[in-house]
Amino acid sequence: MDGYQRRTEKKKNTIREAALRLFSAHGFDKVSLAEIAREAHVSPVSIYNYFGTKDGLIRHVVLTFLEEAWQDRVRLIQSDMPFEQKVEKMIFDTADTAAINPEFLHVLMSNDPEIKDMVETIYQKYLPDLLRFIDAGKKEGYIDPNISTETIVMYFNLLKEVKTTDLFREVTANPRMLEELTRLFFYGLLNKDKK
Q1: Using CA atoms, how far apart are residues 54 and 4, in angstroms rounded to an integer?
Q2: Among 39, 41, 52, 192, which residue's beta carbon has the most beta carbons within 10 A?
Q3: Total of domains in the chain
């Protein structure tokens, strides 16, 4: 990639990040391309040149964010980190939910079939990696083999939804509660020392 292409990619990334911040904070309808241009320190013409319409920009922003979030998760899954630490990081790391408001994404998916299809395509693309991870956890004895993979995937999705709440963000700031939540995740409510 030459210098011009690097500058172009940097500018596009700046626009994407500014759009994501503004759309997540204020909603799609309340943010104009001019506001995004001001936030990104570019001209509105640059946005039109790179992304076309506001609809084109939001589709690109959502697709890029979700693709990067899943790639980060796959890197984590494939890392040398111990299994329990991987699961703990997947559940309790809030970095992947900080950038996009899930309610905003849900509204977009409800109102735009193209975005809904994009999200489903990305999910299906990376689902095999998650299934292999769960299967490895069962084989290594970390995950109860009597629990169906379908239920485990649903459990991960439920925990992902909980991660986006303000209450969860408050809890993760408290080390004792975070440790207890981790214990609850791995062992449930029952006392594991009881026979």
Answers
A1: 24
A2: 39
A3: 2
